[in-house]
Write a structure and sequence with these properties.
Elements (H helix, E strand, L loop, with lengths): L10 H11 L2 H24 L2 H27 L5 H35 L17 H5 L3
Length: 141
């Protein structure tokens, strides 16, 4: 019985095969999911809705992971449309803006709590300053 040997795929046909399996529609759907969760997270942040913030942050994390994996594969095979690359970059910028906003809000809260509950120099306990968030220690603003 004769079995065919390995078949070499030309680079152009490899890209075509990848595009057929993981085409622009699949990339688009993953990017739309990221954009939807970014919008929902932004809305939850504006409402100060902690449970929704946590839920949307988890969903965004999952959506971003799937999108980045898929976009990385597409880029390796030369099948990444420039307009989708630009939208992914904009989404990344929005993630950074939201992260900065949360950091600023956390630092502002830390300052208010430090004012309301100053460190105790005597007695039992160290006051709020001993419980300050790690973000406050990292940010030099």
């Amino acid at each position: 019985m004769n079995l065919p040997g390995p078949v070499a795929i030309a680079p152009a046909s490899a890209a075509a095969a990848f595009t057929a399996a993981f085409g622009a529609d699949a990339l688009e759907s993953r990017l739309v999911r990221v954009e939807q969760h970014l919008g929902a997270l932004g809305a939850a942040l504006r409402r100060h809705d902690s449970p929704a913030i946590e839920a949307e942050a988890r969903e965004l994390h999952t959506a971003l992971g799937a999108a980045v994996d898929h976009f990385t594969l597409a880029a390796r095979h030369g099948a990444l449309p420039p307009e989708l690359r630009q939208r992914l970059a904009r989404a990344g910028g929005e993630v950074a803006r939201q992260r900065d906003s949360v950091t600023r809000a956390s630092l502002a809260l830390d300052r208010v709590l430090e004012t309301l509950m100053p460190a105790q120099t005597t007695g039992h306990g160290a006051g709020y300053s001993s419980l300050a968030s790690p973000l406050g220690k990292l940010y030099t603003g």
